[in-house]
Amino acid sequence: MPRRIPRTALDRLRTPGRFPGFLKTASVCALIAALLTPLSPAVAADTGTAAVADHCGNQCSDILPPGQNGNATLAQILLNQAFGSMPAHASDQLGPYANLAIGHPALTNSTITNFFNDASFGVPADQVASTLKPAGRTDVTIVRDKRTGVPHITGTTRYGTEFGAGYAAAQDRLWLMDVFRHVGRGNLTPFAGGDPANQGLEQEFWRHAPYTEADLQAQIDNAVASNGERGQQALADVEAYIDGINAYIDASDAGRYFPGEYVLTGHKDSLTNAGTIEHFKPTDLVALASVIGALFGSGGGGEVNNAISLLAAQEKYGIAEGTEVWESFRMRNDPEAVVTVHDKSFPYAERPANPQGTALPDDGAVTAEPLVHDRTGSAATETAAATSASATKSAMSSARRGMSNALVVGGEHTASGHPIAVFGPQTGYFAPQLLLLQEIQGPGISARGASFAGLSMYVELGRGQDYSWSATTSGQDIIDTYAVELCQDDHHYLYRGTCTAMEKVERKNAWKPTTADDTPAGSYTMRVWRTKYGPVSHRATVDGKRVAYTTLRSSFLHEADSIIGFQMLNDPDFLNGPQRFQEAVRHINYTFNWFYVDSEHTAYYNSGDNPVRATGVDAEFPVWARPSYEWRNWDPAANTADYTPPSAHPNSVDQDYYISWNNKQAADYTTAPWGDGSVHRGNLLDDRVRELVQQGGVTRASLVQAMAEAGLADLRAEDVLPDLLKVVNSSPVTDTAAKAAVDKLSAWLTAGALRTETRAGSKTYAHADAIRILDAWWPLLVQAEFQPGLGSELFTAFTQNLPVDEAPSAAHGPTGAHAGSSFQYGWWSYVDKDLRAVLGEPVEAPLAREYCGDGSLSACRDSLIGTLKTAAAKTPAQVYPGDDGCSAGDQWCADSIVQRTLGGIKHARISWQNRPTYQQVVEFTSHR
Description:
This protein is an alpha+beta fold and 928 residues long. The protein has a ten-stranded mixed beta sheet, covered by helices on one side. Strand 20 and strand 21 (534-542) form a beta hairpin. Helix 18 (715-728) crosses helix 19. The longest helix has 28 residues, at 158-185. The model is unreliable at 1-40 (pLDDT under 50).
């Protein structure tokens, strides 16, 4: 049987996708005919939008697959399921996006719009598809263009502008917004169905942010109270935005053109229109923000796993040597790591000389805190239990979705003399997409770009009148684990010397079968125990004392605070240069790398509330929950503390170039995930951009080409295979099978080591055999290289800190299969450093010992050739065993990108690319 693809977080979400057989028969035609009531409100074509100041000179572009329209009526869903037809603008950006993989070598500035949208402000009169004054308002107009259907919202009042933004968002993403306000509250299964994937999703995110309604409201109150006029304006914007959403809900309900998923999940009746689509309220947006923050902007965690692997190392080698072995694999500050800020040091979370307060568990004493209780029905199956275990593992790991990349080149190195940027976030591939495109023009707002659905009162990543900005996930550590000593029973702990009761927060969920999800009825209770030091994640003993490990996140109870920074980014009266840009993003407490470009300057800033830790506290491990080891000036009631000053965050203005692919920000700045070593996918960008800068005359096309080529490169092949071949070829290869494999790998490396089709649409890779061999060889060679020296226990513990591989076809790691993003987490630096040491080459910050062949070049070579022969003998069906959508042995399909269905519309697979989901190409020609 085909194996089931393990999926993580959003990849596991299951909303309408399973339909009874009758929908595949001719009877679907009669059903659709009965449902062909108006599919959308009446709109009129009109003249183009009035242009505001646009300094891009037709040189701003963007793309966001699969398409702008993420809503579909029941009739449209049934037509898509039965015949594959697409609603307008549901999929029209997927083709251009996919075509760049083959089309980039011939790219010129004039052909960029074959692969990207024109992101100029406004809509020419002959390109207007529709004009709408939502709810009959006279202070806002929504114009949609013919090519993509993107809304261009123009308001004459601030309220009207934000009302229009909310209305347009609901037009494009109402169902998705509804799904995610339920995910954020931990009650997705009663809303969308009890499929185990939905169970896993609500469990993972509710464990991360187990908020009550009072907590959500308190976040709003705090953000407003602590930010003066901007806080008041943010609240007014949110209220107007929600009014717009709710106006669309009412209009679509009355006109019966609401998303069809509401019928398929039992919330509306297709014949009588009975049922309710609940209005949105401000706390829904905080719930949404908590999901986005957990996915992309909360670096840290993993301290318990770190402790377990450290203890395993000390058990094998003794405390002193074991600690050094652990540190060499941790690579906190590897001097060979690629960095975003050149030649500057920003010390943070460094290894203390004399650690204080560390609370390592006793051997074998750690157990994860159970989240799910009182299972009934389908919640009590083995599948449901396995899903819960996977959700727990993902929630507790520091190896989170990083994704996103940026390439920014200063004007002194470009053909025009103006800076150029190609940048954007990798937010995964979903249908509808998590992000939406929009242009907003109104009092105090002037921007076009992407925003997360349900949070689009401002453009979050995009361009203003004469500047553009974007972000990548940074991952610095803002989450610490504390060991609270238990007293009285398992639910009381010592807080500053007083035995204190933990707070119990519960969510009781029950579901029943629907047309969309036929999972049998079931229920469970999610229960989290909260302490002053955060929610309980594990139980253990430390030196024989019973403890609970808790996770304290600096952004906990503060997801709403970041709204002020986004407001500033959209304000043309405020943002007039790189310094104001840095000031704006300092107000964003998510852990992001922010990039800026205008016609003259470039800039960078790393955001996040980095807590000031007590002297001697090692952020890598659990510490005792005692005043001496708490964050400095920590207020547990508000969860505020002292944070490192802006100057201590990696930052820069007008560096010659910047790259970021979730790599290390700067020297001495430690990030929470493992893997910032000598080989990182950031090298794929850095090598190419550095070469362009050295040559000079960089253009938009050449920078896009650098990004696109890096997005097709196999990191292992480009940066580690040369080491492997050096060892293998250190003596003549006489074995016939090994020689054939070496020749294929060498030819692929010479050709560029890309995973690319032979021609557009061939669904066959060039150098397919070499790719198959490396995919099979990598896990075998890593195990053979390291497990004999480390021992099975320590080797396994280290793989819990850092996965061995994250190839495009790998159905593991924080990204999962068919998700595009690849090569973020893996053992490539370990293999690179170890093989160079065995070869006698210089290595800065080497591993604590040599592992391959126990340091013997000949033994290492024998090991590599043995595993290479085993790998080469594996059939395609063994390397790519197939899954729900791919037959065994189909290499292209195993790598392919799938738009995960979060609604009823399905899309075609596209060939693998490792690039941002939403992406901008910008070069401004002038400045205000």
